[in-house]
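Order emerges. One example.
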Amino acid sequence: MTEPILTEKLTPTAFAPFGDVLDASGDPDRIINQGLCGRYHDRARLDFGPGGRAGVSIFKAEPRALPYRLDMVERHPEGSQAFIPMSMDPFLVIVAEDEDGVPGRPRAFLTAPGQGINLHRNTWHGVLTPLNAPGLFAVIDRIGDTPNLQEHWFPTPFLVASNI
């Protein structure tokens, strides 16, 4: 295996090359519903190619543990993909910049409880990796009949370890 990848705290600045952080930190953009609800407005750039539409699905993934063996990443050239946890449990987010059609060295982020993410279109990323049960997520992504998945298997797996 190569040198371990250490987890980083998920922040909007660190994650910006890959997508958007979805959370309710800071002050809301506006107050609605008779002053009883804060709206954190337009927090994700949803982007879908032709021949598709936005859809909301529910994913239930088996929990994983750190250290985590990373042998494959994928990307979706026809649409962004948002993952919104349906519990207050953190999860692991693995991403990599594109280097001439293949992923570069991956980075690993650990979400805070209540944070979700939106992966920009065509971003290399690991599979959904909850660290606790129930592993339940609302997912907003492209629904369509044309291919929207590319996988890359690493010749040598990476080990992802906690640094937080």
